[in-house]
Design brief:
This protein has helices spanning about 1-20, 35-70, 75-85, 95-110, 125-140, 140-160, 160-240, 245-275, 290-300, 315-335, 375-385, and strands at about 305-310, 345-350, 355-360, 385-390, 400-405. The chain is an alpha+beta fold. Among the domains are: about 1-160, no CATH class; about 285-410, Histidine kinase-like ATPase, C-terminal domain (Heat Shock Protein 90, 2-Layer Sandwich), CATH 3.30.565. It has a five-stranded mixed β-sheet with strand order 1-2-3-5-4, with helices on one face.
Length: about 400
């Protein structure tokens, strides 16, 4: 089975040499050093015409060599001279085609050669053929390079006298081996560079995870502890103070429930902060628009005269969660900065976007400019491609308004 596979691979490489597609310039080349890149960008428009001019000039010298040493006709010398030199112009973009044409010209280039010549080819042809071999070895796979080298040896041993055939073969093979080694070294450098890039990305990811873990730890040790104490004190207050009126007991029960809900949300947030992206997502359901009436009712029990206008639309997904959080933060801000003022909550849906508006009528305390509540609501809206506005109303109150795009899949 191994021998059959090796034979199949060898035949595939041979077909690639004779009839297969060429090798384009490598896409993963390492960038040039800054100084060399600036030089190339400055002189590239002049360098390429000079290279083409040099090739044609050396082709003309090959034609003169053939006219002088072999007595060929001008037409024959021109066809052989330029036919053996111009393929080098394909060496960079199409090295396999350059080798194919140059290989055929190895048989044509010996026309009218003298039997006493140690080299049946003109010097320019040999020089350019070495360049073509090097370009192919720098680009092609090892199997293709091996077949190209073996096929190249055929005209060498057929057309070169025995005394020089081995020397020419060694020269060609050295060029092929040199090009293959340069290609392998370049690939190793590219792999090493990619590995270093991946290592840097992994280090950055680990640094982010460590910072998130530290934040989660601080939140757990400080904020969660205080929230737990609030919940415990609110729950045990009716037992420690048996003379409390029923209304006060209900108030303490509402405080304890709100603290427990806050702790649940915080645990969910801590789980996200501690996650590295490879762990399963939390299975606890996220709140949505369907929970807005309960949110308004909770705020009302907490002493905020909040009212919900209209019917809350049935929208799920990121837009529903963002709308819920905006209403939640806006109610908290109203209770904190405009205590006792009536608050109106409205959530609308026009088929393409959610509209959220929370407005209070009372004067807002100067402290409303601090904190991160407004910034957080704006970020939630803009991340979904929506808009957000917050500011005083003409009646002296304060309003928060957001528009959140909704996809068709998010609606029910």
């Amino acid at each position: 089975m191994v021998n059959e596979t090796a034979v199949g691979v060898g035949l595939r490489d041979l077909r690639r040499v004779l009839f297969g597609r060429d090798f384009p310039p490598p896409a993963g080349r390492r960038p040039l050093p800054p100084r060399l890149r600036r030089w190339w960008e400055r002189w590239r428009s002049l360098a390429l015409p000079l290279v083409v001019l040099a090739v044609f000039g050396l082709g003309a010298s090959a034609v003169q060599y053939l006219l002088a040493s072999r007595g060929m006709t001008p037409l024959g010398a021109g066809l052989v001279g330029y036919g053996t030199t111009l393929p080098v112009l394909l060496a960079y973009h199409r090295p396999l085609w350059a080798w194919r044409v140059s290989f055929v010209m190895l048989f044509v280039g010996v026309l009218d050669a003298k039997p006493t010549d140690g080299w049946p080819w003109n010097p320019v042809q040999i020089f350019f053929f070495l360049i073509v071999l090097l370009a192919l070895a720098l680009r092609a796979e090892p199997g293709v390079v091996a077949w190209a080298g073996l096929l190249t040896l055929a005209p060498v041993f057929l057309l070169v006298n025995t005394a020089n055939a081995w020397g020419v073969s060694v020269l060609f093979l050295i060029v092929l081996i040199l090009g293959d080694q340069i290609r392998r070294r370049r690939q190793s450098q590219l792999r090493l560079a990619r590995q270093e890039e991946l290592s840097e990305l992994e280090k950055a990811r680990r640094a982010v995870l460590e910072e998130r873990t530290r934040i989660a730890r601080e939140m757990h040790d400080v904020v969660a502890h205080h929230m737990s104490m609030i919940a415990v004190q609110a729950e045990t207050a009716p037992f420690r103070l048996p003379a409390l009126p029923p209304a006060v007991r209900d108030e303490f029960a509402g405080i304890a429930g709100a603290a427990r809900e806050a702790m649940t949300d915080m645990r969910r947030l801590l789980g996200v902060l501690r996650s590295d992206g490879g762990e399963p997502a939390p299975t606890a359901p996220q709140p949505g628009l369907a929970d807005v009436p309960e949110l308004v009712e909770t705020a009302r029990r907490a002493g905020v005269p909040a009212t919900l206008h209209g019917t809350v639309p049935a929208v799920d997904g990121p837009a529903g969660l963002a709308a819920y959080r905006i209403v939640q933060e806006a109610l908290a801000n109203a209770a904190r900065h405009a205590p006792g003022a009536p608050v109106r909550v409205a959530v609308t849906h026009d088929g393409t976007a959610l509209g959220v508006r929370v407005e209070n009528d009372g004067p807002t305390s100067p402290a409303s400019g601090g904190g991160h509540g407004i910034a957080g609501m704006r970020e939630r809206a803009t991340l979904l491609g929506g808009t957000f506005e917050a500011g005083p109303t003409v009646f002296g109150g304060f309003a928060v308004a957001a528009t959140l795009p909704v996809t068709v899949e998010a609606t029910e």
